[in-house]
Specification:
single chain, alpha+beta, Beta-lactamase, six-stranded mixed beta sheet, elongated
Amino acid sequence: MDREYDNYEELREARRRRQMMRRRQEKRRKKMIRFYTILAVLAVAVVLLIAGAVKLVSGVINVMEGSRKDLSEETATTVETSREIRTETMAETTAASSAALETSAAEYRAERTSDTQAMNEDVHSNYGIFIDMGSGKILAERNSDTIINPASMTKILTVLVAAEQLEDLEEKVAISREAVDYSFSNDCSNAGFEVGEKVTVRDLFYGTILPSGGEAAAELAVHTAGSLEAFVELMNQKAAELGLSGTAHFTNCAGLYDANHRCTVYDMAMILEAALDNPLCREVLSAKTYTTSATSEHPEGLLLSNWFLRRIEDKDTGGHVISAKTGYVVESGNCAASFGVDRMGNRYICVTADAESSWRCIYDHVALYKQFAK
């Protein structure tokens, strides 16, 4: 009796399990049907959307094609006319650019005349030129077209190029190890800036000119162009702009001797004239002294001096020498480029090279100003 009961319960349990399994299978089947139904609906929707989009794009293209065909004949003449006008304009622009470049170069040009004199025995420098800026006439010259190494007179071009590129003169610049090493390894004069010292861009300009600082020139060049090489490219571009590329070529920003670093005293006179037309350059080239901004390395700043201007200021030049930059390398002796005015307000540029001493260079300038100043 007990055994039959057990068999019945087992049978009922087995039926219950089969029923549950069938219900689960039915639910699974319905879920699959719903899934594939939704998927099919989505697929149809996508197909319809694509078909609609294609139809729409095709319609737009047809409209545009029709419009293009309608306008093609009308615009053909206009396009051709426009092409002709553009060609003429480009030609005119090219001609105008060439004329502008010639005009720019012509602004800084001096001419020999029948009155141009050879420099007399009072001038010892082997190369020289003296120009009346008002008339553009060369009043006196000696080997003024001979190529020399311009030594640190080069820095006139350095500050001119930098002045045309930089705007924020109060920006702080940290003096790099590379700039200091560049100056010391090449036996340059120095402004006195130390590695890591944060000075202003304005300080770099004065440090480049007044004491002829090699580290100041190198840092100014890198700050301007990103590298010494890139800055030299800008220098040669400026020389070309001034119409001097036939004889002038520069390989460094400091005036180090290099066989390919060259110009004539005439070229340097034109570079000085261009620099004088730049307010910042004129200010720097005309400063007798300047005190750099205070830094932790130099709390009272550095006192910089333009010794040429300070030494010539009490000499009888028939007026005043206002701006100047000196230079020296063994191959070119003592050099200087200066700007002065006489008592009548006439303006002059004087450049000499290859004097036997710095004082002789100064007295050569004195002699030329005294001879021609009115």
